[in-house]
Amino acid sequence: MLKKEKGTMKTLTENEAFALVSPCPFTLLTSLNQQKKPYVMGISWVTRTSLNPCLMLVAIAHDRYSHEGIKLHREFVINYPNTEQEEAAWTSRMLSGRCNDKVNKTGFELIDSLKVQAPTIKDATVALECKVVNLFTTGDHTAFVGKVVAMRGNKDKTQYLEIKSMTGFFPGMKQLIQISPKVS
């Protein structure tokens, strides 16, 4: 029989709830736009969904510029930027790709990926190359499920960036990015 006591739990707003479950990794998604030009976007809605096969899910708002390219080309690379890439990573989060060449404005050096046409960010802590195997609508976002077809990383760059808190995560709030602890 369930107890009817409330205990210490209280009703929370959406921002309060997600602030309590932060931090979460901040990644850079590289893809190709409709003209096959390299594109980068900052994203934190990324998760692993399967071990075998290795599947990753990224959730992208329907109105985002990268949404069109990923839907068309059906591939992307999830790059976990290293701590030296923090400023460029934040810049990629702040700019729209419709009006800006984010690759040039951020200064990221892109390299060829091993198995997909979308480029990889040079010196990322980890880069996961993915081919879309499924996609579905989840409200105002599309969930793209990608099969990881190649993985690369930099064992000398063991720190990555993460969102410290989702509360008020809006443009201009740079203090929300913090560096993860070094992994031994």
Provide key terms for this protein.
alpha+beta, Pnp Oxidase, Chain A, 7-stranded antiparallel sheet, 4 helices, 12 strands, 37% strand, globular, disordered C terminus, Flavoredoxin, flavoprotein
Any guess at the CATH architecture? Roll
What is the general shape? globular
Count every helix, treating DSSP H or I runs of 4 or more residues as helices. 4
The structural class is alpha+beta
Total of domains = 1
Count every beta strand, where a strand is a DSSP E run of 2 or more residues.
12
Whole-Å distance between the termini?
46 Å
CATH hierarchy class name: Mainly Beta
The low-confidence runs, each spanning 5 or more residues with pLDDT under 50, are 166-184
By CATH, the topology is Pnp Oxidase, Chain A
Helical percentage: 10-25%
The ordered string of helix (H) and strand (E) elements is: HEEEEEHEHHEEEEEE
Mean pLDDT: 82
